[in-house]
Amino acid sequence: MSTDWKGVFPAVTTKFKDDFSLDYAGTQKGIEAQLKAGVHGIITTGTLGEASALSFQEKQEVLRIAVETVNGRVPVLMGVAQNTTLEACHAVEDGQVNGADGFMVLPAMLYAADRRETLTHFRTVASASGKPIMIYNNPVSYKVDCTVDMLEELSDEVMLVAVKESSDDVRRITDIINRLGDRYQLFTGVDNLAMESLLMGAVGWVAGLVCAFPEETVAIYNLVQAGRIAEAREIYRWFKPLLDLDVNTKLVQNIKLAEVAVGLGTELTRPPRLPLIGDERESVLATIRTAMDNRPDVSDYV
Question: Each residue of 219-275: pLDDT tens digit?
Fold first, then answer.
């Protein structure tokens, strides 16, 4: 199955009301800000979308909010991170009914599957899906590495069209391309390795800090694609301290705090995640303030 997935795909945050119920208007506002900046896709219910704190039904509701908001302007992918393969199959089946254009699928949660089990998981979910799938490879956080050898073995599965590569090793982009050419549409999934990955052949960026800084994220992508590397590098160097906030156990709290600074959200996270306090919060705020004080003008690039 062919897709035109490329560009900046924000892994959007899920917004909550004070009682921790889903905030339709807040989630819609965040997505609209991304679309206005020129992003190329939207991904719901990833790690940044607090998938682990949402019920199965709530994940589908967040997807419906995104589909209604986007209204066909860009592809909408639903993150699928379930504890079992059967639950993941149910998620993609329901997600198709609720309008998903595709799925970003992780190995099953909690259990660290071996090679055979991981391959079987992806093949089984692919067989349940009538929409294309982005494999999400994040061995740093989720302890299962979908290696180049495994991607080659899965290359006969037509529903598996893309890879979000978050192994924290930018060399993996070259290794995949050398082995498999353009079989998979490669996305970088590590914010502070994004430009490096794009330069080495990734066609897209599943981004986190984009939730607060969509214009700058899109500008970097557009400039790299245009071969204007020096200009992209200047913005990227400004962005780097912010991008580091994504590579952190508390990335959700960090990025939601950045959203507050630009008027695109609140600090509310679902427990066990709690908003940052004390020195930890002040350190993140200092990074955000410094960036805001030196924010570049990227209006010509988006």
Answer: 999 999 999 999 999 999 999 999 999 999 999 999 999 999 999 999 999 999 999
pLDDT score at 291: 98
User: How is the chain split among helix, strand and coil, in percent rounded to 5?
Assistant: 50, 15, 35
Could you give the strand order of the β-sheet that contains 133-137, starting from the edge strand earlier in sequence?
A: 7-10, 204-207, 185-188, 160-165, 133-137, 102-105, 76-80, 42-44
Residue 66 structure tokens: 């995104």
Q: Is 130 in a helix, a strand, or coil?
A: coil
Tokens of 260: 């507050």
74-114 pLDDT, tens digit each? 999 999 999 999 999 999 999 999 999 999 999 999 999 99
Domain at 7-212, CATH homologous superfamily: Aldolase class I (3.20.20.70)
**Please, which contacts does 168-177 make with residues 24 or more away whose CB atoms are closer than 8 Å?**
168/140, 168/193, 168/247, 170/196, 170/197, 170/200, 172/148, 173/197, 173/200, 173/201, 173/202, 174/200, 174/201, 175/148, 176/148, 176/151, 177/201
Please state, in angstroms and rounded to a whole number, the distance separating the CA atoms of residues 91 and 56. 8
**What distance in Å separates the CA atoms of residue 239 and residue 241, rounded to the nearest whole number?**
6
Pairing of strands 160-165, 7-10: unpaired
CA 284 to chain centre: 21
Q: How far apart are CA 206 and CA 48, in angstroms?
A: 11
Which DSSP category does 247 fall into? S
Does this model's pTM top 0.85? My answer is yes
**Cα(61)–Cα(57) distance, integer angstroms:** 6
Measured between alpha carbons, how far apart are the two ends of the chain, in Å? 30
Among 189, 127, 121, 134, residue whose Cα is nearest residue 161? 134
